Structure formats: structure tokens, C-alpha cells
Amino acid sequence: xxxxxKIFAGPVxxxxxxxxxxxxxxxxxxxxxxxxxxxxxxxxxxxxTPTQREKLGRLGGAKWVRGKIDAAREPAEKAExxxx
Length: 84
Prior knowledge:
It contains 2 helices and 2 strands. By secondary structure, the protein is an alpha+beta fold.
């Protein structure tokens, strides 16, 4: 911010000197808290209808999706087709 200091006042000229006001540095915020200690997350994008988005919010949003993914079984691996 700036503070104005009046240096001269007269009938013809009024002057001000702007000087920097030193403000204490702000503390750096740590950001979004981690879901688990040491776990890194990555953002993803999903396409859905507005109605589906509203329902997702009612179901619990990202926390609900993460729970569903964690509870789901891994899909069985498909056998490679045998070529001649």
C-alpha cells in the first residue's frame, strides 16, 4: 500500500510524496489438506449431465467416488487372442 506525505501546500501547488508502507509478509498457506498422509492426488475430468452432477453432489461428491473405486474389484484380465 501507499501512504501519502504532504510536502507543500500553497495557493498554487499542492504536492504529495507517495512512499511504500512496509507490510509484514503473509504466511504461505499449506494448500488443500492431504486425504491421507503422504498420498498424492491427481485431478480428473468427468463428463455428465446436469442432473447426474446434482445427484453426485447428493451422494457425496469426490469422497463418494473415491470410496466406490476403492471398494470395486479389479476387472479380470482378458486373454490375448491366439494368432496363427
